[in-house]
Task: structure prediction
Amino acid sequence: MPVYSEKVMDHFMKPRNVGEIENADGVGEVGNPVCGDMMTFYIKVKDNRLSDVKFKTFGCGAAIAVSSIASEMAMGKTLEEARKITPSLVAKELEGLPKNKLHCSNLGAQALNKAIDNYLERQGQKVTTKRRKNENEPTARGKREKAVLPLL
Amino acid sequence: MKKAYLDNIATTLVLPEVLEAMLPYFRDVYGNPASLHDWGDGAREAIEEARGQVAALIGSRPEEIIFTGSGTEANNFAIKGLAQAQQSRGKHIVISGIEHFSVLHSAKTLEKRGFEVTRIPVDRHGLVHPDAVAKSLREDTILVSIMHANSEVGTIEPIAEIAKVVKRAGALFHTDAVATGGTIPIDVKELEVDALSLAANQFYGPKGVGALWLRKGTRIIPLLDGGVQEEGRRAGTENVPAIVGMGKAAELARQGMSPRTAHLSRLRDRLIQGLIATIDHTILTGHPGQRLPGNASFCIEFIEGEAMLMLLASEGIAASSGSACTSRALKTSHVLTAMGIPPEIAQGSLLFSLGVDNTEEDVDYVLEALPPIVDRLRQMSPLYGKFLKSQRGVR
Result:
């Protein structure tokens, strides 16, 4: 079994915000059971803020911990702020993930982003330009991000 | 906290009698078996005694036992060593799709060196059919290797029947008996194989020692070149304490086999029946009847194996899984895949492998601890949610 940080174990053993939101404003589903992990994020938006975030996850310990912390990180944020939750931020917040589990942090950030996309679509807005624009910033973090993404 | 070790597929414990037998060979009898003095004589005699004990376990002659550093080495030795020794006769090798990596990857290595390998499919129970082997055989087939039992799903293969087919074709037949050696009765004369691999840590002996039984007169090319240890077939100073431990473990296994089997089968059946009865959407993997006495392997639908293992570990229970997330390479168990189990079901793989020290209480503890774990993960699983919705739709 991979060695997980205490933070990962904490979020795995006591995951926050598990569940579905009935009448969610946005839903994002990523991964598929054939690949091993699947995450669904549900968001409720009020005044441009995520007033509620819930998730359901099929996957390993890392996948569950990633979902839990991503939901916690997103809770109460504006849509723009929530967009800035990247895989590497998720992994950092979890005090690191084993190398072969880094792809799980991608899924968490993606599911959240997809739920926001879905919300904006429902609002009739174009979403393409907004996707992950923070990742093009030439920061050290942005560089690390690129190292993680090809794992997908 | 209560603790229950049900991961004997990874390794069994070392029995106290085995450890006791080994200790003098670290402490007092430390000589090199090749040396011509008292120190060497003691070590050499101990190895020969162990050779006799291992031979007795499988009904062979002592001189047909070659000690190795592991079951993996025994498999590598058999596949590469026999294929190389036979290569003037042909280049074709036959294995099954559910072999241990030490066989699969040895065959792959040989493929790169110009050999041709046929991998035989198995049925949904993990059985290799003798007819399928017969169909795969060619005039230039030099070696067939089919495992005696698969420890991951517990299925015991019809080796004696397959041996007849292989013999008719004139090829050599090796069987990886790492999962069965010391666990179920083996008589190499009845099995009619030419080579057979064993590992001590699968029958309460130490890690780091195994053996290859090789029928007398069979040519093999050594993996290791060096001195003339093991009749020149396996160079390197012998691991005397480990070999002594393997011998002792073999003796204990032979003497205690039938009560051990009865004990393990009883616990296994209690676990299988209890688990299937309490957790719905659970599939028993492997053959329902023809299976290892200590193997209870399942796929639990809608959830993933590693998550189950972590929650079980938090309750003091050791088990294993063939799910992709559990493996370092993130690949689903090739055994479950070969049996035609869909990947999303295989993700829920959970394997309990029992040992002689397990008790009924251990099994009952698992039966008590697992259902809430499964429940908890299913509550979290989008697949389970979708399944429930679809059920409601039907009604």
Q: What stands out?
A: The interface with chain A takes residues 302-307, 309-311, 313-314, 323-326, 328-330, 332, 342-344, 347, 379-385 of chain B (CB under 8 Å). The mean pLDDT of chain B is 96. The first strand of chain B starts at residue 4 and ends at 5. Residues 124 and 341 of chain B are 8 Å apart (CA to CA).
